Amino acid sequence: MKWAIYSIPFLIIMFFMGISMTVYAEFGGNRMAVRAPELVGGTAWLNTDRPIYIKNLKGKVVLLDFWTYCCINCMHMIPDLKRLEAKYPDELVVIGVHSAKFTNEKDSDNIRQAVLRYGIEHPVVNDSEFRIWRSYGVRAWPTLILINPEGYVAGVVSGEGHYELLDEAIGALIAGFSGKMDRTSLGLALEKYKQPDTALFFPGKVLASSNRLFISDSNHNRIVIADLNGNVTDIIGGGEAGASDGAFEEATFNKPQGMSLDGKYLYVADTENHLIRRCDLETRTVETITGTGQQARSPWDVIVVKDKLYIAMAGAHQIWVMDLKERHVQPYAGSGHEGKIDGSLTESALAQPSGITTDGKRLFVADSEISSIRSIDLDENGKVETIVGLDLFEFGDRDGKGREVRLQHPLGVLFHEGMLYVADTYNHKIKVIDPDKKTSETLLGNGEPGSNDGVSPRFHEPGGLAIFGNKLYIADTNNHAIRVADLSTELVNTLFLKGLAPPGEKAAGFPVETIVFPGRRIRAGSNGELVLDVKLPPSYKFTEGTLLEYEIQPCDGDLIRFTESDRKLSTTEPEFPMKIPFRASDIVGGCRLRIKLMFSYCKEDSGTCLIKFIALQIPIQTAKDDKNQRIFIEYRVSS
C-alpha cells in the first residue's frame, strides 16, 4: 500500500483505531482528513525553552518520532533523522516524543542525558504518562508520524530503515505546499549548550590489565589509556567521529564501547560505525578487522577467548564469533529474534546483549532489554541459559534468588573469582551475582542517581566494569567519570585523570572548577554587555600584586562576538564588576559562552592564600523577539 499526500504516492504502513487525527490519505480513491492531535500531556520539554504545539507549526512539515532511549532500533533512527534535518533545515521540524519503556527512562534528566549522548538537536517532549502516545494510537518503538503544513497527518511508519521513504514524502509535501511553507527558525535552546566541558564524555566501558586502564571515552570518540593512578599515558583516536584507520593520532571512531586485550592488541567494539577495530599498542596503529559499517549490527562489547573474538551484537540480538587467525565471522548464539528463549545456541533468543565476559568455559552476557544475565556455553553443542531475569517487560530492583531477582537494563558484566559483577545500569547500582546459585545482591549504590563518593556512593547509569587487584573500576557513564571502589572497604572515589582534556583542548594539569550558569536569551543583532562579577567571602581580598586573568573563548557559530582586546585581560588591579561589550549576531541560534578565569586571594591578617582556576560556561540563545542585551554573571567564592 502507498501513502498518499493529496495525489502524491507515499507509503502508509498503518493507521490505528480510536485516534482523533486529521489526515490526507487515499484508500481506493477515497480521501479522509484526520487532524493531528495536539502535543499536550508531556511532563517536560528538552532542547527548547517552551512547549511546542502543532497549531503553531503551520507552514512546517512536522515529523513526530516516538521513541524510548534504551531501544536499539530507536538509536538506529537518529542518524536518519539528522540527515533529514540537514537536508530540510528550514522546512522540517522533527519532534521527539519520548514514551518510556523502563521506569528509569521516565525521568526528564535521564532523558536529557540521552539527548546529549545521542547528539539530538530537535525538541523532545517527555511523554512519561503516554498521553501523546495514546492520542496518536502508537503501538511500537520507533514510530514515525508525518504531519503536513496544514496540521493534518500524512502517514505513519514503524521501525527503522525508512530514510528514502521519509525523504521522498517530505520532499513531496514541500513541493505540494510550496506557496504555504514557513521557513523561519524555531530558535531552539539546545541542551548541549547547558552541558559543561568534561575530560570524559559518557564513558561506556573500562578495562583493567597489566597496571593499565583502557577507557572507552565514547562520546569523545576515543580510547584513553592511563595507569591505575589516573596518569594518562596515551590516547587512541583524534576525537572526531569517523572510521579512519592509521596512527593513534589520525584514527577515528564513532562512539566506541567494549574492549578486550590480547597481548599487544586491543580489540574495540566501534559501536556506531558497526565495526570491530584492532589497536596495536606497540606500533600505535588502528585497523578495521571486520564489519561493513552497515547499520543495525551495533557491536557493543567484545571478549577474546583462545584466538576467538566473541562479540555482543546489540542490534542483531546475537553473539557473534570471529576466528582471529582466519578472520572469519559468523553468528554464535541467538536466532536474531528479540526475546528470552533458552535452549540450543541457534534456537535461543537474546535481547540487545550489551556486555560480555567469560570464566573460560562459559560466556556471560548482560542482556539489557530483558533485564537479564545469560550464560552461553563455549561449546558448539552447548546451550543458552538464563541466570537471573525474566522477560522484556519484567524489570525492577530486587535482590534475591532465581525468579525473585529483578534488574533494570544492565549494560555491564564482569566475571571475577567465581562471581559476576553487574552494572545494573538503570538502577544506578553495582550488584554481585552468583552464577551457580543464581543469587543477586547489591554491592554499591542506593538506587538513586548521583555522584557521591565515600561509603554511601551514588552512580548515574554505570555501563562498564573492570577489576585489578582489590579495586573495582566503574565507567560511570552519565557522571562522565571513572569511579574506583575498594572491594575490601567498599569505599568509592572518583579517579582524577591527569593530563586529559576534551579533544582539541590542552590539559590543565590541575583541577579546574567548571560552573554552568542558567541560560540567557539575548536580542539578535544587538550591541550588548557582559557583566562579570566575583564576590570573595568576608575577610578575604585579592592578593596584592598578583595577576587576575580571564579569557573569553569564541562562542559557537560566532553568535556572540567580542573584540580581540576585550577577549583577554591580565591585571594586578582587578575591579569588579567588569563590563565587557559584545555584538550579538543577526542569526537566531544557540551557543555556549566560555570564560576561563584565574585569580589569587588571601585571608586578611593571615598568610593563607589560595589560587582559583575556574571555567564559567553560559548557554546563550539569540532571538529576534527578545529585548535583553545584558549577560550578568556573578561567581561567589566559597569560604
List the helices and strands and how they pair.
Elements: E1 4-5, E2 8-9, E3 25-27, E4 30-32, E5 44-46, E6 61-67, H1 72-87, E7 92-98, H2 108-117, E8 124-126, H3 131-135, E9 143-147, E10 153-158, H4 163-176, E11 205-209, E12 212-217, E13 222-227, E14 232-236, E15 246-247, E16 259-262, E17 265-270, E18 275-280, E19 285-290, E20 299-305, E21 308-313, E22 318-323, E23 328-333, E24 343-344, E25 353-358, E26 362-367, E27 372-377, E28 383-388, E29 400-401, E30 412-416, E31 419-424, E32 429-434, E33 439-444, E34 464-468, E35 471-476, E36 481-486, E37 491-494, E38 513-516, E39 520-523, E40 527-535, E41 540-542, E42 548-553, E43 560-561, H5 564-567, E44 568-571, E45 578-584, E46 589-603, E47 609-623, E48 630-636
Parallel strand pairs: 6-7, 7-8, 38-47, 39-47, 40-48
Antiparallel strand pairs: 1-2, 3-4, 5-8, 6-9, 9-10, 11-12, 12-13, 13-14, 15-19, 16-17, 17-18, 18-19, 20-21, 21-22, 22-23, 24-28, 25-26, 26-27, 27-28, 29-33, 30-31, 31-32, 32-33, 34-35, 35-36, 36-37, 40-45, 41-46, 42-44, 42-46, 43-45, 46-47
Helix content: under 10%
Rg calculated over all Cα atoms: 26 Å
Mind summarizing the main beta sheet?
Answer: 7 strands, mixed
Strand content: 35-45%
User: Structural class, from secondary structure content?
Assistant: mainly beta
Q: How widely separated are the two ends?
A: 70 Å
Number of helices: 5
In short:
The chain is mainly β. The strands form 11 sheets. Strands 38, 39, 41, 42, 44, 46 and 47 form a 7-stranded mixed beta sheet that branches.
